[in-house]
Amino acid sequence: MEELPNIQENKWDDSHRPWPLPNLPWGMKQTWSDLLFAHYPVKYEVLRKLVPESLEVDTYEGVCWVGVVPFRMSGVRFRGLPPIPGTAEFPELNVRTYVTIDGKPGVYFFSLDADNWPAVKGARTFFHLPYHYAKMDIKNFGDTVLFESKRRNRSDIVFAGSYKPVSAPFIAVKGSFEEWMTERYCFYTLNASGLPVRCDILHHPWILQEAEGEITLNTTLSKQGIVVESDQPILHFSKKIDVRAWPLVHPATGRLHF
Predict the structure, then answer these.
(1) Which of 180, 172, 244 is nearest to 209 (CA)?
(2) CA-CA distance, 114 to 132, in Å (whole number)?
(3) Cβ distance 250 to 257 under 8 Å?
(4) Are 73 and 90 in contact (CB under 8 A)?
(5) What pLDDT, on a 0 to 100 scale, did the predictor assign at position 8?
(6) Distance between CA atoms of 167 and 210, rounded to whole angstroms?
(7) Per-residue pLDDT, 5
(8) CA 84, CA 89: separation in Å to the nearest integer?
């Protein structure tokens, strides 16, 4: 575990990113809070059938992983515009795995559920992401976070649990599992033509904590055909991170995607 950096508020340094940002202005800003990273090992053969062939499945020490990530979203706004009405704060739940294209590691989302219809519609339209409208609730009781989610058009896709941090905050050591699963500065998705596109993001290095929790109900994996090797996930917590996202680009050329 590395010492925490002296991070200055609103100072957006990109020197820790593994490749340069696109030569474009950032397009969206948002804040993520009270995140749980719940990671499950999955066989390569299982993921290879579910991840698009154009994306290379990434592994850590030969093992594939899927993450279930509940959190609170806030401060969503496009560059040069005020916050989007109705998106001041809402819960979100992501199911993700890890992929690469041309040596640039990123995240691939199987699903993203949010309790905010404008955000769901906007992300589907502008970022080609598999967002779904869900009924959600997130509450804080001291250090403990309670989170519940039920997809509105698929009541069988549910998540419920509680979690809390149990260690001092730390920055992941280079080469560790924690660094591998969090320090990813883009996500990949498919455009309307089925071709891969990349969204570059920028944030400070993740400040993590070890976590403990109880996931009482979770069908977000099984209902998407994701069979895990263990039902006991590795848990990490992060209190808050500010993020900027760039417009979608073509992975090979870095040119703007329309």
Answers:
(1) 172
(2) 6
(3) yes
(4) yes
(5) 44
(6) 5
(7) 52
(8) 10
- Please list the alpha-helical segments (H only) found in the chain: 44-50, 117-127, 177-182
Structure tokens at 16: 């820790």
Task: Say if CB 112 and CB 124 are below 8 A apart.
Answer: no
In the chain, which residues have pLDDT < 50? 6-9
Q: Using alpha carbons, select from 133, 44, 55, 131 the residue that is nearest to residue 94.
A: 131
Per-residue confidence (pLDDT) for residue 64, from 0 to 100: 98
- Specify the pTM: 0.93
Integer distance in angstroms from the first to the last C-alpha of the chain? 41
pLDDT of residue 69: 98
pLDDT number for residue 11:
65
Pairing of strands 131-141, 234-245: unpaired
Cα separation of 256 and 73, whole Å?
26
Q: Report pLDDT for 7.
A: 46
Instruction: Report which secondary-structure segment, H or E, holds 128.
Output: none
- The pLDDT value given to residue 254: 80
